[in-house]
C-alpha cells in the first residue's frame, strides 16, 4: 500500500453539506449552534429539513441556541472502528437532548473542547447529566460536542 | 361495473420452497452466484421450475437486481417485481410483498431471496468517509457501525427498565443452545453466562456476544397460492398476514431522534399485524425475533404484546415466553439480514426444525427493530 492510500484510509469521515444543511455547518464555523425552528408553530426541528413536520409550513428558521442540555444516552466506542479512530479509543459518544427538545450526537470533550480519551467512568457520565456545548476541531471541521457540567 | 375476474377471489399465499447454501466465513462465490443457487434449490424443494416463476422481490441491499437474476435463471416474464429498503427491516416486508402479489392475482409463483457475503466482503461502513444526508451528523464522530447506534438504544432501555446484564445474556445463551442442535449453525461451541459476562465490550453496554455473526450466506423462498400448493408434494406454510411500519420521525437506521426515546417502529407494526392476522400473542406457538443484537429480543416481546412494558426480564426468566430463534438466529446460526429467521419460521410450521416446537399452528417472524420494519405470521392451516 502506498503512503497516500494509507493516509486516505486513516482520514476522518467529513460532513458533506447540502443546501438544506449548509447553514448548520456555517453556524459551527462561527461558533454558533443553529437549530431550525418553525416560524409558524414554534416547533424545534432536527435533523434539518425544508418544511416543518409539525404544521407543514415551508422554510423553518435557523435559530442560534445555547446548546445546553442533558445526556439522553451514551456509549463507549471500542475496537474495531474506523482506522482514523484506532488510536483514540476508548471514547464516549453522547446522545444529547437539548433544552429545546431535539437530540444530537456529539463527543464527550473536556471543558476546553479538547479530545477526551475516556470510558466515561472517571467523568461519571450517566443519563440525565447536564452538559454544555463546546466545539471540537477535527481536521478543520468544528464539530458540536459536549462537556459535563 | 363488473370486477375483473382475475381479482374476483382473494387468494391466500403459501410458502412451498426454502433453501439455504451452507453458511460460511467465505463462500467463495459472488452474491449473484450464491443467490442463483439458493433460488434453484428453493424451486427444487417446491417441485417447481424456473419456467413457473412470474414474480420476484428482493431487499434493496441485495446486490443482484430482480432483472439480472431473472435473466441469469431464464425466467420468461416477470409480472410483478420490486424491492424493499432499510437493511434488516426488509425481511418480512419482502416476503409480505410476495404474498400480496399472489393474493391479488398479479403473480402465481414468486421468489424472494437474500445473498450476502457480509463476512468475506468486508464491513460496508469501513470505507464511507464522505458523510452525506443524515450521516453528516453522525459519521464524522465515528458513529458508523450498526452496533454503535444500537448501543445508544440499549443504554436507554437498560436505564429505563432496570435491566441487568443477565437479561441480554440469557438471550445469547439460549440461542447458542438452539444452535448446538442445528448442524448448519456457524457457532455451536457451548456459551455460558460467565462466558457472556466476561466477553469484551464492543460499544458499551454491548458485549461481543450481544452482537450477531458476520456471515456469507445465500437463502431463498418460493411462494404460490394455497390452491396451487395443494397440487405440490410439499407441506404448505400459509401466510396468514403481515404488516409494515415506520413510526414517526424515522431516521432510517436508528430511532433515537423519534418523538419518544425508547420506542421502536415495532410499536406501530404490532397492532397492525394483530389486526391483519386476526391473531393475538396467545395464539403464537413459536417466534423468530430479529436479533442483530440481544436487546432486541426482550423489547420485541414487549412491543408485540407478549408481556407488558417493562415486564420482559421477569417474563423471560420465568420461561413464560414462546420459544424464540430456534435455529440459533443471527447470534449463533448465521446473520443473513434476518432471512434465516424467515426460513426457520417456515421450518417450524413444516415440523422440520432441529429445535422443533410441538404442534406449531402459528409462527411469528419479525424484522429489524430500530429501522422501518415489518412482521409476518406463518401458519399450518389456511384461512
Present the secondary structure layout.
The complex is a heterodimer of chains A (149) and B (383).
Chain A: H1 3-9, E1 14-15, H2 22-29, E2 33-37, E3 44-45, E4 61-65, E5 69-77, E6 91-98, E7 103-107, E8 130-138, E9 141-148
Chain B: E1 13-20, H1 31-46, E2 55-59, H2 66-73, E3 80-84, H3 91-103, E4 109-117, E5 130-131, H4 146-161, H5 165-180, H6 193-198, E6 201-204, E7 206-207, E8 216-225, H7 226-229, E9 237-245, H8 266-277, E10 286-288, H9 296-303, H10 312-317, H11 329-332, H12 339-350, E11 362-366, E12 373-379
Parallel strand pairs in B: 2-3, 2-4, 10-11
Antiparallel strand pairs in B: 1-8, 1-9, 4-8, 6-7, 9-12, 11-12
What does the model show?
The complex is a heterodimer of chains A (149) and B (383). In chain A, the strands form two sheets. Chain A has a five-stranded antiparallel beta sheet with strand order 7-6-5-8-9, with helices on one face. A three-stranded antiparallel beta sheet of chain A has the order 3-2-4. Mean pLDDT of chain A is 94; it is low at 1-6. Helix content of chain A is 10%, strand content 36%. The longest helix of chain A is centred in the N-terminal third of the chain and has 8 residues, at 22-29. Chain A is built from two helices and nine strands. The termini of chain A are far apart. In chain A, β2 and β3 form a beta hairpin. By secondary structure, chain A is mainly beta. Chain A is globular. By secondary structure, chain B is an alpha/beta fold. Helix content of chain B is 32%, strand content 18%. Chain B contains twelve helices and twelve strands. Chain B has helices spanning 31-46, 66-73, 91-103, 146-161, 165-180, 193-198, 226-229, 266-277, 296-303, 312-317, 329-332, 339-350, and strands spanning 13-20, 55-59, 80-84, 109-117, 130-131, 201-204, 206-207, 216-225, 237-245, 286-288, 362-366, 373-379. A nine-stranded mixed beta sheet of chain B has the order 3-2-4-8-1-9-12-11-10, sandwiched between helices. A two-stranded antiparallel sheet of chain B has the order 6-7. In chain B, a hairpin with a 1-residue loop joins β6 and β7 (206-207). Chain B is globular and about 55 Å long. Classes of the chains: A mainly beta (149), B alpha/beta (383). Chain A binds chain B through residues 8-9, 11-18, 21, 46-47, 53, 72-78, 81-82, 84-85, 91, 93, 95, 97, 102-107, 119-120, 127, 138, 141, 143, and chain B through 125-145, 148, 151-153, 155-156, 159, 200-206, 249, 251, 256-257, 261. β1 (14-15) of chain A pairs parallel with β5 of chain B.
Amino acid at each position: 500500500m502506498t503512503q497516500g492510500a494509507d493516509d486516505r484510509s486513516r482520514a476522518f469521515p467529513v460532513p458533506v453539506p447540502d443546501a438544506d444543511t449548509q447553514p448548520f455547518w456555517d453556524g459551527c464555523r462561527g461558533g454558533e449552534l443553529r437549530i431550525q425552528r418553525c416560524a409558524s408553530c414554534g416547533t424545534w426541528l432536527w435533523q434539518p429539513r425544508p418544511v416543518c413536520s409539525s404544521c407543514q409550513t415551508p422554510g423553518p428558521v435557523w435559530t442560534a441556541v445555547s446548546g445546553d442540555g442533558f445526556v439522553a444516552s451514551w456509549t463507549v466506542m471500542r475496537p474495531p472502528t474506523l482506522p482514523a479512530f484506532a488510536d483514540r479509543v476508548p471514547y464516549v459518544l453522547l446522545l444529547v437532548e437539548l433544552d429545546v427538545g431535539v437530540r444530537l450526537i456529539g463527543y464527550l470533550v473536556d471543558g476546553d473542547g479538547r479530545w477526551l480519551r475516556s470510558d466515561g467512568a472517571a467523568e461519571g457520565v450517566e443519563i440525565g447529566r447536564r452538559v454544555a456545548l463546546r466545539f471540537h476541531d477535527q481536521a478543520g471541521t468544528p464539530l458540536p460536542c459536549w462537556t459535563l457540567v | 361495473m363488473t370486477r375483473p375476474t382475475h381479482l374476483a377471489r382473494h387468494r391466500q399465499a403459501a410458502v412451498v420452497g426454502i433453501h439455504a447454501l451452507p453458511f460460511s466465513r467465505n463462500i467463495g462465490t459472488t452474491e449473484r452466484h450464491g443467490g442463483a443457487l439458493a433460488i434453484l434449490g428453493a424451486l427444487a424443494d417446491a417441485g417447481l421450475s424456473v419456467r413457473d416463476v412470474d414474480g420476484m422481490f428482493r431487499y434493496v441491499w441485495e446486490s443482484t437486481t430482480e432483472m439480472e437474476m431473472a435473466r441469469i435463471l431464464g425466467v420468461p416474464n416477470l409480472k410483478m417485481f420490486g424491492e424493499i429498503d432499510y437493511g434488516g427491516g426488509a425481511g418480512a416486508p419482502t416476503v409480505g410483498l410476495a404474498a400480496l402479489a399472489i393474493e391479488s392475482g398479479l403473480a402465481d409463483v414468486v421468489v424472494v431471496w437474500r445473498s450476502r457475503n457480509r463476512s468475506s466482503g468486508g464491513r460496508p461502513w469501513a470505507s464511507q468517509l464522505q458523510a452525506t444526508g443524515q450521516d453528516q451528523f453522525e459519521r464524522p464522530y465515528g458513529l458508523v457501525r450498526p452496533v454503535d447506534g444500537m448501543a445508544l438504544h440499549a443504554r436507554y432501555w437498560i436505564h429505563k427498565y432496570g435491566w441487568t446484564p443477565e437479561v441480554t445474556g440469557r438471550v445469547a445463551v439460549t440461542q447458542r443452545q438452539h444452535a448446538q442442535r442445528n448442524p448448519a449453525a456457524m457457532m455451536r461451541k457451548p456459551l455460558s453466562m460467565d462466558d457472556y459476562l466476561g466477553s469484551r465490550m464492543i460499544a458499551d453496554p454491548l458485549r461481543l456476544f450481544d452482537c450477531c455473526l458476520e456471515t456469507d450466506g445465500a437463502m431463498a423462498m418460493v411462494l404460490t397460492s394455497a390452491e396451487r400448493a395443494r397440487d405440490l408434494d410439499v407441506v404448505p406454510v400459509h401466510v396468514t398476514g403481515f404488516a409494515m411500519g415506520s413510526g414517526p420521525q424515522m431516521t432510517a437506521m436508528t430511532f433515537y431522534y423519534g418523538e419518544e426515546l425508547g420506542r421502536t417502529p415495532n410499536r406501530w407494526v404490532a397492532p397492525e399485524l394483530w389486526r391483519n392476522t386476526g391473531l393475538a400473542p396467545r395464539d403464537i406457538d413459536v417466534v423468530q425475533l430479529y436479533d442483530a443484537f440481544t436487546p432486541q429480543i426482550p423489547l420485541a416481546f414487549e412491543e408485540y404484546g407478549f408481556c407488558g412494558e417493562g415486564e420482559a426480564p421477569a417474563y423471560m426468566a420465568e420461561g413464560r415466553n414462546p420459544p424464540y430463534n430456534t435455529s440459533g438466529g443471527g447470534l449463533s446460526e448465521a446473520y443473513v439480514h434476518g432471512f434465516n429467521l424467515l426460513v426457520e419460521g417456515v421450518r417450524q410450521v413444516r415440523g422440520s426444525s432441529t429445535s422443533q416446537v410441538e404442534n406449531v399452528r402459528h409462527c411469528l417472524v419479525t424484522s429489524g427493530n430500530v429501522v422501518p420494519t415489518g412482521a409476518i405470521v406463518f401458519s399450518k392451516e389456511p384461512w
